[in-house]
Structure formats: structure tokens, C-alpha cells
Amino acid sequence: MNISKWRAVPFALLGLLSVAWISFMDAGAGDQASLRSIVSGSIVFSTDTWDDPRNLMADPSLNTDATSLTLDSPTSEKAHTVLSETFDDKNSVVFLIAFGEAATSSTYVERNIMSLRRRGEFQGHVLVLTDAPDERYDGLFDEKVIIMHPKEEHMKTDFLYPSMTVKRFKTYIIDYVDMVPELDDVEWIFYLDIDVLFGAPFMDLIQKLGEENDIRGDDDMVSKFYFFKNPRAYQYVAQGGFIIAHRKMAKECLDLWRREIDSHLEEEHDQVSLNLISRSIEEGKERSCRLMIMDQGDHISYPRHDGDLYTMMRDRSYSSLIHIKNTANDTSFGNGVHERFVTGLLKLTFEEKKQGEDLVRKSFFGYEK
After folding, report:
1. Fewer CB near the terminus (10 Å): N or C of the chain?
2. Helices vs strands, H then E, count in the chain
């Protein structure tokens, strides 16, 4: 037996381990988070329908920088190939749902999109799912606003409360994005209630939420979606007016949410089903989905009386999201105060004020005074 040959084996193994360790350290060095700015051009809108007072979605002089956030890359190669490391206008879509007479006869959708384009400085795609006639929103928006109608097979009408038929469509946000070829590059879907207005750059908000909540994929690739903590936390765990969902990571959670909704036809609020999911996760019964709850901080406000509006107008300072109609609370605004607030928030010019009276003369709940 050649003894010297066997004595050399441990040293050879040690050398291989050293090379492997150096390679591992070098690979990790490239996973550092970084910030970069994407300069976006001015929004160009058709002027063919300027005689319609609601064709006022963008600030004609708007030319802003949209900031995208680069998060730490997931350590799993599988996770890295599925999840984007950035949020930006190109890989994100804002999803709105407008159903029923109260929603489609009001200007909530117009207000939302105008504030998104102006205060929110978001120039990406917006998808509006609505049961309104085709002509309702015809010619009002730029080419990146996509109007869709619900598929008949998604309509479930045997709920005790008809509003749940509409709320259930939140669970289909990925399905409708998948139907639009223009949205093939979209990875992040941001659902918002139509009565939410934008008071500050939207991508800045997403950047902050990404940092605060580590919004990215995990190695185990468990499905997940993100909600704000409900201000009525004693009753509901999540607030359903704002949802962050990754196109490839949230599908299982959304399907689970829909199954829970369909199993409780007598409930009036979709948050009840989220409570049940949260409880199942805590008890270890549900392992395929994670319900991620984000602290609201000062990111969203719920003005409840004239004083709240006066304060924002006086300070010229708005939270990123403003839930201007919160029917869960006893809200009451003077009509004149509400008009002044909306006019300032939407940055209406003198000419737009004359042309766009409908935008500020709708009542708090969307009906004519």
C-alpha cells in the first residue's frame, strides 16, 4: 500500500473546501441592496376630448423622477428567478374595481387616477375592472389605463349581502392581469379601493413599505399577500382597501381567500375571511399561505371631519394614501370644505376648475348634491 498517497487526501480535501468557501463569499458580495432612479418622460395625453370636463387625468407639465427600490436578492436560486428585485412603473400595475350605480355614476375612478398621475407621480399601467357600459370611461384616460369587464363565470350572486359579489373580485386580480398582453411584464399588483386618493409619490410609498416589511420572496416560496393592519384591529386583522400582491407569489393565497369567502355566504365583510385565514395560520392548520400585515404608520389617513381636511390644506402636507370615504366611520364634511380639499389635492388649474366641476361637486358618497 502507498502510505504517502493516502496521507495527501486530507490536504486535498482541505484545499477543495477552501476554494468552495472563497467562491461562496464572492457570490454573496453581489447581493447588496442598491437604489437607482429611473427618469420618466412627460405624460402625453390626447386632446381630442378636452371638451369633456373629466378628461383631466394628468398635469400637463408633469415630468418627474420615479424611484425604484432594489431589495436584497433571495438566497435561493429558485426564488431569484421568480421574484423581481425592484418596484417601478414598468413592472407594476394599479388595480381598481368600480361596480354598481354608486361607483360608476360618481367620479371616484377619475379622482383616483388623476391623483395617482399627479400627486402619486405614477406613470405605469392602471387596470379598471367595471360593470359600467363601455362609453362610461371612453376617452377619459391615457393609453395606459385599461378598462375591463368581469367575466360571467366570476359573478357569484348568492351572498346575503350583494356587496360581497363585488368584494370577491379582489381575489381575481391576478387572473385579470393575466388576460392583458400589455401587462406581460408586470410582476407587482397594487389593489386599491376607488375612494382612496394619492397624496404623495406612490413609488416612494412602495419603497418605504418594502424596507419596513421586507417585501420579497422567501427561500421556501410560500404564497403570500400584504395588507395594512386594520384600524379596527379589535374586530379585523387586515384592512382590505390596499393589497400588495406579487403575480407569481400571491395566487394561492388569493384562491384560498376566495374559498373562505364562498364558504361564508352570510358575512358582510371580506375581512372576516382574512380573520379565519389568519387564525388557521396561527394554529398551524394553514401552511400554504402567509397573510402579511403591515403597520399603517403615517402612510394612510382617514379624514373624518372638516378639521382633518383643514389641517392638510393648511400644512400643504398629505399622507401617501387618503381614504377620503370611509363608510365604516361616521364621517361628515361640509360640502364647501370637501370641494376645496379635492380641488387642491388634484392640483386643478383655473381652467380645469371651470371645466372639471363634476370632479369636486359630487358628494362625499358619489351622488349629486
Report:
1. N
2. 13, 13
Q: Say if residue 332's pLDDT is above 70.
A: no
Task: Please state, in angstroms and as integers, the Cα–Cα distance from residue 96 to each residue in 50, 259, 281, 333, following that order.
Answer: 24, 22, 28, 25
The single-letter DSSP state of residue 244 is: E
* % of the chain residues with pLDDT over 70: 69
Please list, in sequence order, all residues whose beta carbon lies within 8 angstroms of the beta carbon of residue 264, skipping any fewer than 6 positions away: 272, 273, 276
Contacts of 123 (CB under 8 A, 6+ apart): 40, 43, 66, 89, 117, 144
- The torsion angle over the Cα atoms of residues 3, 4, 8 and 9, rounded to 10 degrees, is -20
Q: Is 71's pLDDT higher than 70?
A: no
156 CA to centre of own chain: 24
User: In angstroms, rounded to a whole number, what is the distance separating the alpha carbons of residues 198 and 116?
Assistant: 5
CA distance 337 to 37: 37
Instruction: Give the residue with greater pLDDT, 197 vs 7.
Output: 197
Phi, psi of 248 (to 5 degrees): -100, -5
Q: How many CB atoms lie within 10 A of CB 111?
A: 24
pLDDT, average across residues 293-301: 95
Q: Choose between 67 and 15: higher pLDDT.
A: 15
Check pLDDT > 50 for residue 363. no
Supply 123's cell numbers.
406613470
CA 198 to CA 32: how far, in whole Å? 31
Q: How far apart are CA 140 and CA 145, in angstroms?
A: 9
Residue with more model confidence, 5 or 171: 171
